[in-house]
Amino acid sequence: MQENGFAANSANNEFVAFRVGAQEFCVDIMGVREIRGWTPATPLPHAPPYVRGVINLRGAVLPIVDLAMRFGLGLTEPTPRSVIIVVHIHQQIVGLLVDAVSDILTSSEASMQPTPDIASDMAKTFVKGVYAVDGRMISIVTLDSVLPINAKAAA
Amino acid sequence: MDSMAAIRQTFFQECEEQLSEMELGLLAMDEGNADSETVNAVFRAVHSIKGGAGAFKLSELVQFAHTFETALDHVRGGKLTPTPDVMKIMLRAADVLADLVEASRDGREINEASYEGIAADVKALTMVDGVEEVEEPIDFQPTVIDFGLPELSVEAAPVANAPHQYRINFTPRSELYDNANEAVLVLRELNRLGTMQATCDASAVPSLDEVDPNGAYLSWSVRLSSEEEIAAVREVFEFVEGEAELAIEADGQAEVSDADIAALLAQALGSTSAEAPNPTPELPVEADKDASALKEEMSPAESPSSEPATVHALSADAAKPEARIAPVPTQTTIRVEFDRVDRLINLVGELVINQAMLSQRVIEANFAGSSSVVIGLEELEQLTREIQESVMAIRAQPVKPMFQRMSRTVREVADATGKEVRLKTEGEATEVDKTVVERLAEPLTHMIRNAVDHGIEAPEVRLAAGKPAEGTVRLTAAHRSGRIVIEISDDGAGVNRQKVLASAIKKGLIPPDAQLSDSDIDNLLFLPGFSTAATISNISGRGVGMDVVKRSIQALGGRISISSRPGLGSTFSMSLPLTLAVLDGMAVSVAGQTLVVPLTAIVETLKPKKTDIHGLGAEGRVMSIRETFVPLIDLGAELGFRDTPAQPENSVAILVETGGGTRNALLVDSIQDQRQVVIKSLEANYGTVAGIAAATILGDGRVALILDVDALVTSSFEESLSGELHYGTGG
């Protein structure tokens, strides 16, 4: 808690870091509502393959996005260790299926590096920048276009 | 400032009620039911609006309300007969008043020119032989420091043979003036009841340097001879209740009014009144205090059984609404913010789901059917259902206010098109969920406009066709098997089928050689991009067609259909769910998933035989049901749950009917049961899904999807419209 206060004062942000396949990503902790285990989702007809379906989150219907599939890294086979990160995207609440949550990072805007310029649509669409942490590269994910309906609006 | 804003909000809320009361009364008067109670109700409504508007310095509103009120007063006084022509002006004036209230509420600029004509018309009503009756300027404000007030007294000798004699002491407090009421107006009102003699007591007025400009220093004692009962006298003071010391005393009247306390109070005040017409300045002020003190002291005491003259006197504070004329027991209501109700409904929804989950766990735990756990759970289920129904009832509202608004639409459109149209409504008390009412208003307005603009013919055409010049639009609501059915019918010319057909072919909506039945042609009206109006009028041709109406009805889980008879008129019939929160559905299994089919769409369920299924074209399949062929939709394949077609002989077919009357068979693996489900939005966190109306949460906590049968059928036949129409009459 003290760390938290300190972080806010020095204009640092906290991020939830997670693993999708062999790559590491993170999202701003302020957008994260909760982290929960995997439960089987009800598939939605006519949905893109990265939308795994919907689950019941205490009475609300929550769509689940398979981030690996969304990022073009292949379909995730959910295991008991798989995790759903429940995030706010604009007015909506969405669950992100990831392989595992690794840790919580505290980092400042200043130490963010621009996304390396590679010919990847996924990188251009979803990665805002990267952090270097202990020799690892952690990509900061922008969630704006994760859902299909938002993807359409953004295009 | 905040509290002022809150008061303002309350004022406009009340205005809405007053307006609806007014409209109701006016419509009753228009029907020829102009008894004094109705006229009074209208008058009171307009008067209240005027009074409130004055407090907020809404001068245009006050001005117009005043003009209107004067006309109503003429009706009340029998000087003006509510003929149909007069009522027409009155109703239009009511519309203007509603507009002004709305404009004032939203703080919009008021364009006086827009209602000048009607204001003049209303004013003309009050002209007697072309001379406007003398009336004082409405912004008349008696200055408190004006010492020369005795001329206010209305001189008239009391008529001895008038049945009732009243002595009234009336001492306004400063709140009365603060609330934009006016003692003079009250006295003038009193004068209408009979002959009266009023004396102003200015003895309490302090010397000029001590005068508080906002203070109230005058009191009046009035002798009134009237044929009216005391209730009518009291009613005059209705708007100043609690803002003045008031003592009304009836001489020689045998009728007793209230109970013990009132009589005791009367005794207390009797001495005060006895000193009229020269009351000492402090007495009326003290009277209230005395009375309340007395009330406390004497309430357990017995009523004095033999009062020589029945006295009815109360401090104005104590004059409760039951003293008003209307003897109808009104149900008490409270205002609750809608958010709170919604929160409650959501919680109850959760409760229902939780209860279902609990039931499932108990079943899994294999308790004996007679065990106390199972019995307790059954009771819980019963309770939950009752709570849910009660909560839903909170949201239920009668359709009456919406219907009332429609009568205005009819008037406006009829005026604009030069037609004579009367709106008849039935079943206004029918209740339906608030959201349904709200979201129904727009499509309904549109359909009413259509009915008047396109349905009803011009008066001369009607007369030529042997119909009365005045057309009738009938708007009815009724509950029918758990749904609300709203019908709009006109006695106009009916759908011009040739024109509709030609137009649809011209617009390329149907192939030129399409063979369509009459009802198919009528249903063309609902096609997107269809509009019969040759020129776009500003009434119905706003680019919003019947397809939009149909879509908004469908979005509410409703269906709409049309039936028309040439020369006799058309009827649009809408069937809507009573609530948007729960739905009766049939749970079915498809490829391992549970889906809910709305019960309202289901006609029957069948076990198909292999010989019932026929291929049609490359992929199409139809099923024969008693010699008619209906398209077969394989749900699993249609929704992408499986790649291979289902085997009909291992499946169950559900015959469904869409809003348009189209029948289709849905192929599912098995039927689970029939249940009531809580509707959960998919749009909130995701978006719309073709063929799916919403979601729900099952007893095991998983999400199940609710089918949108109409959308499903339409999307499955998108490419072959004529095919759909062809099947429209089958089955």
Q: How is the main sheet of chain A built?
A: 5 strands, mixed
The radius of gyration computed from the alpha-carbon positions of chain A, rounded to a whole number of angstroms, is: 15 Å
Kindly provide the name of the CATH class of the largest domain in chain B: Alpha Beta
Assign the CATH topology of the largest domain in chain B.
Heat Shock Protein 90
Rg of chain B: 34 Å
* First and last CA, distance of chain B: 66 Å
What is the percentage of strand-forming residues of chain B? 15-25%
CATH class of chain A: Mainly Beta
Helix content of chain A: 10-25%
Strand content of chain A: over 45%
Total DSSP helices of chain A: 4
pLDDT < 50 stretches of chain B: 129-160, 253-259, 271-327, 534-543, 719-731
What secondary-structure arrangement, pairings included, does this model have?
The complex is a heterodimer of chains A (155) and B (731).
Chain A: H1 2-9, E1 12-20, E2 23-28, E3 32-37, E4 51-57, E5 60-66, H2 67-70, E6 83-89, E7 92-98, E8 100-108, H3 121-126, E9 127-133, E10 136-141, H4 148-154
Parallel strand pairs in A: 2-10, 5-7
Antiparallel strand pairs in A: 1-2, 1-8, 3-6, 4-5, 6-7, 9-10
Chain B: H1 2-30, H2 36-55, H3 59-76, H4 84-105, H5 113-125, E1 127-128, E2 131-132, E3 164-172, H6 174-178, H7 183-191, E4 194-201, E5 219-226, H8 230-236, E6 244-251, H9 260-274, H10 282-298, H11 338-364, H12 372-395, E7 396-398, H13 400-417, E8 421-426, E9 431-433, H14 434-455, H15 459-464, E10 471-480, E11 483-490, H16 497-506, H17 518-523, H18 546-555, E12 559-565, E13 569-577, E14 582-590, E15 593-598, E16 602-606, E17 613-616, E18 620-625, E19 628-634, H19 635-638, E20 652-657, E21 663-668, E22 670-678, E23 692-697, E24 703-707, H20 709-716, H21 721-728
Parallel strand pairs in B: 8-10, 15-24, 19-21
Antiparallel strand pairs in B: 1-2, 3-5, 3-6, 4-5, 7-9, 10-11, 11-13, 12-13, 14-15, 14-22, 16-20, 17-18, 18-19, 20-21, 23-24
Helix pairs in contact in B: 1-2, 1-4, 2-3, 3-4, 3-5, 4-5, 9-10, 11-12, 13-14, 14-18
